[in-house]
Amino acid sequence: MARPKIALIGGGQIGGVLAQLCALRELGDIVLFDIVEGMPQGKTLDIAEASPVDGFDVNVTGTNDYKDIAGANIVIVTAGLPRKPGMSRDDLIGVNTKIMTSVAEGIRDNAPEAFVIVISNPLDAMVTLCRKVTGFPAARVMGQAGVLDSARFQSFIAWELGVSIRDVNAMTLGGHGDTMVPLVRYASVNGIPVMELLEQKYGSAEKANEVMTAMVERTKAAGGEVVKLLGNGSAFYSPASSAVAMAESILKDQKRVLPTCALLNGEFGVDGFYVGVPCVLGAGGIEKIIEFKLDETEQALMDNSVAAVKELVGSMNL
Ligand code: TXD
Asked: Tell me, what CATH number does 268's domain have?
């Protein structure tokens, strides 16, 4: 039985980490594509030469020719420019729209059966464009942002409470931008509400709310925090890990419930737009969108985030 084939479009900071992570986890044979001559070939040769040390038996190759992605089961797209300090994700829409259009055409023409996970920013707009240009079914075109944003939220909670990240469960909804919605009410440590644990730790609901608000704001600004510290480029380890979790759930039919930028069809009151929501990811791609009750405050925050996505997508005049 042939190994799955994973095509990575964009061999930059995130693309290189994606290639290494997919190889280390033996998710399938990996083809790294980029327009820069030699770079994907060099990165993959370097990763492949570590295989005797790391012990993975998959092929890792680089290419500048879309024909080499033929037969890919999964395509992960990072092609596009990252932010510089002071830039918003939305500032990238002009240049990355042109790039994503050419990438989506390449995927459509060479890997017509693939599941596509888009990472490129501005994420909600880029995944919308990718689906439009490929014409693939919505279940096969999704965006990665919520796994990363939720991981950041979970990290801050674990560090604040001094507990293992393994036992923290928290999720964000909505767009991949400043309007994202970290869901405080559903954040827990093994089912124990985080707010209850914060109140125990600080002895007052007021202080607990203050600490949680700071974590929510840090989650929303976490991308910019890394961009500012790096000075050149944006986060790349955590986005890569996040996309690999989604790819693995599809490739191994794990049915994981992961925050996914998915095309909504009435869920959460949204129709025809890509927004981050919990989805069951399995062999069918997005197999189910999980809807659940939001209270008034949460619904208002979600509506606000959806409005920002609609405005951003509207600016592309698709
Ligand atoms: O979680 C998330 N969704 C976000 C996504 C988290 C962090 C970064 N996010 C975005 O991912 C970021 O704002 C960028 O839009 C993408 C890729 O970020 P990365 O840090 O990997 O950018 P690089 O290192 O500049 O790599 C981009 C590569 C680079 O090698 C270019 O040569 C290539 O994209 N590129 C292309 N590849 C294929 N086809 C075309 N046309 C093309 N143009 C550039």
From this structure: 3.90.110.10
